[in-house]
Amino acid sequence: MYLSIQYLRALAAIMVVIAHSNHKAMIYNIDLLNFVKIGGGGVDLFFIISGFIMCLTVDRNRQSFTSFMKSRVIRIAPLYWILTCVALTVYLINPNLVNSSSTHSTSIFSSFTLIPQGHPYLINNAWTLSYEFFFYLIFASFLFSKDKQKLFTSIALIILVIVGLIFPPAHPKWVLNPATFITNPVLIEFVLGIVAYKIITNKMISLKIAAITTIVALILLIAHNFDCSLLPTSLGRVITYGIPMFLLFVGFVSLESKMPKINLLYQLGMSSYALYLVHPFIITGITLVMRKIGLINIGPLYVTALIVGSAIAGFLCYKFIEMPIDRFLKTKIKNKPVTA
């Protein structure tokens, strides 16, 4: 695994944690994190990383549609379902603790199946997993073509987005509206991940160009942080988040040969999936505890607890839940007898 990608995973996860921590803190008039306007862009970086990693995965180990989808379910679903069961328990005890800020009712069916029906999930930020699995389905559908698989995948996703631009869905602002879902421009970010794979694996840019690309990407992101209004087009998110994140990914990963190992960032990257899923629980839990003991108005302590607490919980969840389950399931499948 690329060190650079683990660092970018860490960045993406922390960006999302900061965005959600800021949202919670602002409820209590604590604006210490409000200077970070682009935390949501971590999701776009995750999509680009996913596009790259899936290309890397099938090129290293050619798979059928079934084996590919099975491996994706085994990798992603167990931890998600465990935490969704936790969220369901909380929801049944006190519904106000789950999606309290949403005007839409929570869907238990969609929460477990990741099939969007226009309602939020028990783990609200899990909407991104619906896009991940939709991408996996499109990606795996073209595994029959070894040479053109990535091209066919890219064309299919681009066509879906074009259809959505020509025939806009009735409710474009709600990300889980079924029509919006299958034509959402964020699908282009998976294509950007595929393009990044071609650029990086074919060594199409030098170290110097890679450094310049990384710097340009950071400048664009910083500029957007000061003016975070999206461009007035349906492609606004892809342009303001996706393109800079694509440039950052291509530039930074192309510098892999010069990348030192920073263990904290590496571990944070390795645990980024667990962190992404578990941090809403931690943010809510810390908020309830600090409000109960009267410390919530101490802004620096509160926001530090949210971010550091989420990072620690993510690592512990990764080490003691996610990875043991992953190893167990892979061992069971590996040792499963072959039947005629």
Automatic annotation (TrEMBL):
Molecular-function annotations in GO: acyltransferase activity, transferring groups other than amino-acyl groups
Pfam families: Acyl_transf_3 (PF01757)
Domain Acyltransferase: 3-318
Highest taxon listed in the record's lineage: Bacteria
Transmembrane portions of the chain: 7-23, 35-56, 76-93, 126-144, 151-170, 182-200, 207-226, 238-255, 264-289, 301-321
Record has Protease as a keyword: no
Gene Ontology process terms (BP): polysaccharide biosynthetic process
Keyword Isomerase found: no
Alphabetic keyword roster: Acyltransferase, Membrane, Transferase, Transmembrane, Transmembrane helix
One cellular-component annotation, GO: membrane
Name this polypeptide is given: Acyltransferase
Organism in which the protein naturally occurs: Photobacterium iliopiscarium
